[in-house]
Amino acid sequence: MTPGTLVAQGEYALGSGVIREGNEIYSTVLGLFYYQDNKKLVRVVPLEGKYLPKAGDSVVGKIVKVLPGKWLVNINSAYLASLDPRNALYDRVDDLSRVYNVGDLIFAKIDYVNEIYDASLFTKVMPYGKLRGGKIYEIHPTRVPRLIGKKGSMIYMIKQGTKSKILVGQNGLIWATGKDKMTDVIGKVITIIDNEAHISGLTDRIKEFLEKEGEQNS
């Protein structure tokens, strides 16, 4: 979708990236059209833009500072997030660096965001917590829905095709672990999706690519 494209007509709820003029709804950004049937909601997700933390999102982050009562975490945003020990631990620990230290990577859920985008994180239950080993990849945060696919179809296909464990952060950071050759394939797939998210037929191209790479690396 490009700015000014007619995306729908009628009584729909409006999400981000769209405006209504009379009975018609138009895109205000260059992006991908999404329709949420159960809410009759239409929106256009922009292809460019910085990640803004949102409650409920899962993110990959890096511990950048350990304070007496919390950790500060880089979540690939203009804003640092914080992790309170009560949202990470069941038992009291005096030295927080024994749990998460500077440089550690974590997979976390955004528990709360205030009006100035200060985000608090949660890592107390699986699959959240410290990430050990693996590789980190980056994609534009606005392309994450395309990487995941409808009902998780795209990311499931990638996991199956590479026989790898993959955790996708809504902040555009992806963690994966598996055989070295397959993690290289994951990086290539993510690059394709990042560059071609707006082009139709992407799912078929990714499927063909994975099948070809699987044959070469079998």
Structural description of this entry:
The structure is a single chain. The chain is α+β, with helices and mostly antiparallel strands and 218 residues long. The protein has three domains: 6-46, Beta Barrel (OB fold (Dihydrolipoamide Acetyltransferase, E2P)), CATH 2.40.50; 58-131, Nucleic acid-binding proteins (OB fold (Dihydrolipoamide Acetyltransferase, E2P)); 135-216, Ribosomal Protein S8, Chain: A, domain 1 (2-Layer Sandwich), CATH 3.30.1370.10. Helix content is 22%, strand content 34%. The protein has helices at residues 144-148, 153-162, 180-196, 202-216; strands at 6-9, 13-14, 18-21, 24-27, 31-36, 41-46, 58-67, 70-74, 80-83, 105-113, 119-122, 129-131, 135-138, 165-168, 173-177. The strands form four sheets. The protein has a five-stranded mixed barrel. A hairpin with a 5-residue loop joins strand 10 (105-113) and strand 11. Helix 2 runs parallel beside helix 4 and helix 3 (180-196) runs antiparallel to helix 4. The radius of gyration is 19 Å and the shape is flat. The termini are far apart.
